[in-house]
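Supplementary Methods, section 5.1.

A reviewer requested that the exact input to the structure prediction be made available. We therefore reproduce it here, unchanged from the version used in the analyses.
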Amino acid sequence: MRLSSYSPISQVISPALHPSVRSKGKRCIDIVGALLGLSITAILFLPIVFAIRLDSSGPIFYTQRRCGLKGKQFKIWKFRSMVTNAEQLKHMVENEADGHIFKNRNDPRITRVGQFLRKTSLDELPQFFNVLKGDMSLVGTRPPTSDEVENYSSYHLQRLNVKPGITGEWQVYGRSNVEKFDEIVRMDLNYQRKWSVHYDLLLILRTIVVVLGKQGAY
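The structure derived from this sequence is encoded token-by-token as follows.
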């Protein structure tokens, strides 16, 4: 199954929009949160840029095509935390996760500065730009790659019924310690069932606690 910028897969997932997609309250929180996040990014930008430059050659940002709402593809932005030829070296790294995700606790492609950026979640700061654009939300499901989605079952596709988020249940209740894809899907679908503006705010607050405590990140 090959995905386009707006895939016909959207007709397979669900014809109805999830309430969170239409929520003006959620969108207002996203805009305010994105502007605040981008302000923090601006303050930390130069130190992060210098650190990345000193540690390894290559671009400052890492971009990748991800699948969002209804399978629509978008370009996600992060501060680069791996060597520049990481994708070409991926086949040499063992996948320690179970299912349609890729994880390795000691991935040799991650740079020294990249380890710090990931541990503190600073590598994800540029994603506030994705939130401001509307491709992502502050809270949602983990944004998958197109090659992951190509192998999804109809059950897995349900996670694409909401916008992907910078954080979500997987970030709050497991983060990198969750290594089973079906467990991530279970949390994503649980989020969809429990969603409300208040629940989003609760997950945002819990995410701040988790990130500041550097819990479960690698």
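The longest helix spans residues 24-55. These observations are discussed further in the main text.
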